[in-house]
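Curious: why these numbers?
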Amino acid sequence: MTYIDIHAHGYLEDQWHYRPGIGHPMCTPDDLLRHYDRLDIAKGCLLPIVSPESPLNTQSNEEVLRFCQTHPDRFIPFCNIDPRNLLNNMTSPFERVLEYYRDKGCKGLGEMTCNLRFLDERVQALFAACEKVGFSVTFHMAPFIGENYGLVDLPGMPGLEESLRRYPKLKIFGHSQAFWCEISAYTGQDVRFGFPKGPVKEGRIAQLMRKYPNLYGDLSANSGYNAISRDRAYGVKFLTEFQDRLLFGMDTCAPNAFVSPLPGYLKELRASGEISQTVFEKIAFGNAKRILGI
């Protein structure tokens, strides 16, 4: 098998995932493995869902550790903390908690879905702790506070940029529509909610990745796939330039929900010679193995 999935979710038992407008069952270990075996995915990183903005049923880090123990050769645990946990301020002992889960085998933190601003002092305290412990951070970006989930930033991502500047040793994995729409210059707010089409005029992501070597791209979900496929020529250029900082991912949540076309698309680009075998291997699995130490 080829790929390492940097972004997966699941529950040990049948759970109904609900947020306004969306409801569906969540993947169990067997559900994820059925997807993985069909799509040539060797391993997946399980990201706990802990913030109340995202699902009706949150989950514990312990559940994800148990999930990964069902097939330790196929699942890799991440841990997660909502920045409002513990003392609900910037003095919360995040570092001690992260060290505990690192010692339990967790390889990073995420997915952060709390609906707080990037520069909220509680978010920044958690970033600082992750940098000290050596964890990467995976975030979901949201366009605004309220009726939404994910860390909030303005167009152009100034809050993300300041976080990259403050924590140069912290590997930050960008994800979601509001992040990936920034692959291109744009006007208006609508594109931050969806999957814009058409030619790409270089946007903030490439600019930030050149300036900050600690910014990485999580290619999971339709947002990541859309970003690199909407303008094929630019996508190939982007994959090649940032081959050391892009990570294959799926973000498959439900047994029968949308499944990203990314696995087939990357193989198609390799077969056509548009990306090299080296670029393909780095994005498919090499970068994940290097960053996570697996």
The chain has one domain: 83-292. The two ends are 15 Å apart (CA to CA). The first strand starts at residue 3 and ends at 8. The chain has a mean pLDDT of 94.
